[in-house]
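Input sequence (477 aa), recorded before submission:
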Amino acid sequence: MKRVAAVDLGASSGRVMLGAVGDGRLDLTEIHRFWNGPVQVSGTLHWDILHLYRSLLEGLRTAGAVDGIGIDSWAVDYGLLDTSGRLLSNPVHYRDSRTDGVMERVLEKVSASELYEITGLQQLPFNTIYQLAAENALDRAEVLLMIPDLLSYWLTGEVGAERTNASTTQLYDVRARGWSDVLAAKVGIPRELLPALREPGEVVGTLLPYVVEETGLDAATPVIAVGSHDTASSVVAVPAGDERFAYISSGTWSLVGLELEAPVLTEEARSANFTNEGGVDGRTRFLRNVMGLWILQECQRVWGDDDLPRLLQEAADAPPFAVLIDPDAPEFLAPGNMPQRIDEHCRATGQEPPRSRAAAVRCVLESLALAYRRTLRSAQSIADRAVDVLHVIGGGSQNELLCQLTADACGLPVLAGPVEASALGNVLVQARALGEPLPDLSAMRALVRSTHHLRRYDPQGKPADWDAAESRMFGTR
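Predicted structure, token format:
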């Protein structure tokens, strides 16, 4: 048995998981869970990176002796180190307003079509390239490290950039599989800031003395690069039996897409705002970001109501298609009074706002299901890929109402689970690097299928009702 620690950082919580792999077994145990979220300081929204690092060390100390350590997190955000290797400031949160209007200024220097031709990335206002264009500390920086690479650096002292997360920066040449010197020069980003690239499964280094002292781990314990973008790790753990599948990595964000052998860089893909992100074993994650459960999470925060099962039961009994919103509308991006924003969005689109919390929850989940339907059908058409089953993985796979609505909207069977997909993908890549006989993604996925329970949701209701709802929803943009 290989015993590894998977550090899995989401946009609202982090966890250190203990994975055990071997002899047909794939076990996962939560060792330490901790809060993660934005901290407002002097008008800027930051990540509390030192809290995350301290929590990571606490989790490793609790885990005890392991054969390896891997770290995955959300994408696009970074830390800047100075010439002495010190962090210049707390990483800024991607929901911060500093990138407001920056994308438009960058597109005056390099066209959207050229950006897509090189990077294949969805245009999002918080992509790393736009954050760097808004950055005021580049002249004092020696190197840029994405969040998992920064934490790995603090564990090992080794600088580098894991490829799947690098591919989300909009500075990565998706064909050449390396940093784009052309884009860095055009946007005014010093090329020397971008470190050497690593592959998933590559050993980053071993633990520094002070880390050994803090955790009690053996100094020879390797830190292993995994699919450090959490969606890349999640897709590793999609329990698919063949290639005719689509996935939704469902959490604060929803990543809706396909796994392909090569990027799709057509004008049709760019116009539809699809992204081509790096996956493990050289695969391409052809997907689009949909806002996800963030809207519901913010509603609950404002309501002060954490009884989600009750809210979902009441929402299941609420009238269908009473109110619909565009979950990707920009007003839903930043933290704030989400119920009020839903009401304002409804009035702006000629609808009566939801009359109750249950109606608001129904509105959010039906609108998400419709966004999934539209995105998935577009992906299949653009990539010319047929799909027989839709896998919903991550925390959202536990939301039974959303899973059923997604099956109904997409007209496909939904297989829900595993919940901790990103941690499982992290564990599997580590185990293979440590010698477990998991030669390819098919073998990894077969192990997930044989060891984890999946819940199936078959389409119900009338497709014509969803057709009418989709026409109504997207006709109000």
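Checked by second reader. Residues 156 and 208 are 5 Å apart (CA to CA).
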